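Support request from a user on the community tier.

User writes: "When I paste my structure tokens into the form, the page sometimes reloads and wipes my input. The last time it worked, I copied everything first. Here is what I submitted, just in case something in the input itself triggers the reload:"
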């Protein structure tokens, strides 16, 4: 009879642990998914901002006799622009390249209308994402205009501002959902742990009544919480990156290439899983340690 009771208690304990691990894994899977979306949304936002280019034009008056001197001057200007703080990437476009681009856009295959390179050479500049901010775009344009040799700077500032505002709004919504999922993770994991500790309230109080110190009683529960939190986190991460790997293979894009961000996300998910599990265990156990015996029947 005693053996059957022990087996029943072991099965119930095993079932309780499995339930807690699954709860932790599911919650952390959703939390990690929001983290991946947030990381990639930020990178994709930066990528879109870098596609909003500024065109810096050299003087249109061009004398073939001074071609060597002009080429040297333009090369020096190009190098100087590359060193400017707002510049992410700069591409030099020669007069020949500008003419070819014009013919392509106009659908002209002959050189009859282009007896000479009538378009000025220029530099196509992609700004750093933070300089697409409406508060900093003017500062970036002024820095480019101030470079000797640049005759004119053109950009669609209205488009830049609209894109920046829309992307910022989307990122705020994603960040808001991530915080919401973090709160849900705390609540759901806490509830699962409380139910587990509740089923052991009589054991906790019995240990206390026979003289066991609170630290001694808490220690095995904390160790178990660390193990359950780690296992749940790892299962959640395996499911998360398995799904993400499948998704990126299907669309043919790996999104973020910086593995450091994935590394920090893994640490964050594991840390959150273990921290919430341990904290919930300590709070729930401490509650029964402070309660009276009569309260155990009405908790």
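"...and here is what came back when it finally went through:"
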């Amino acid at each position: 009879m005693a053996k059957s009771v022990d087996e029943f208690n072991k099965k119930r304990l095993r079932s309780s642990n499995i339930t807690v691990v699954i709860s932790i894994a599911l919650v952390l899977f959703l939390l990690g998914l929001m983290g991946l979306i947030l990381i990639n949304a930020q990178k994709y936002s930066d990528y879109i901002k870098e596609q909003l280019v500024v065109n810096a034009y050299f003087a249109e008056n061009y004398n073939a006799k001074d071609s060597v001197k002009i080429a040297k001057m333009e090369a020096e200007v190009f190098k100087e622009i590359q060193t400017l703080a707002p510049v992410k990437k700069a591409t030099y476009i020669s007069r020949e390249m500008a003419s070819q681009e014009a013919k392509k856009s106009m659908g002209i295959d002959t050189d009859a209308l282009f007896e000479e390179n009538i378009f000025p050479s220029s530099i196509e500049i992609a700004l750093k994402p933070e300089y697409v901010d409406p508060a900093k775009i003017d500062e970036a344009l002024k820095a480019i205009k101030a470079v000797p040799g640049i005759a004119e700077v053109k950009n669609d500032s209205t488009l830049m501002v609209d894109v920046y505002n829309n992307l910022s709004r989307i990122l705020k919504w994603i960040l808001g959902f991530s915080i919401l999922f973090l709160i849900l993770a705390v609540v759901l994991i806490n509830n699962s742990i409380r139910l587990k500790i509740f089923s052991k309230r009589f054991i906790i109080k019995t240990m206390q009544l026979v003289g066991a110190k609170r630290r001694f009683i808490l220690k095995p529960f904390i160790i178990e919480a660390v193990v359950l939190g780690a296992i749940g986190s790892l299962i959640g991460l395996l499911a998360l990156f398995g799904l993400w790997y499948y998704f990126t293979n299907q669309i043919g894009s790996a999104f973020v290439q910086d593995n450091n961000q994935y590394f920090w996300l893994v640490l964050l998910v594991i840390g959150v899983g273990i921290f919430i599990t341990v904290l919930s265990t300590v709070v729930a156990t401490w509650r029964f340690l402070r309660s009276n015996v009569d309260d155990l029947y009405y908790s």
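Agent notes: The reload is a front-end session timeout and is unrelated to the input. The longest helix spans residues 2-50. The mean pLDDT is 76. Escalated to web team.
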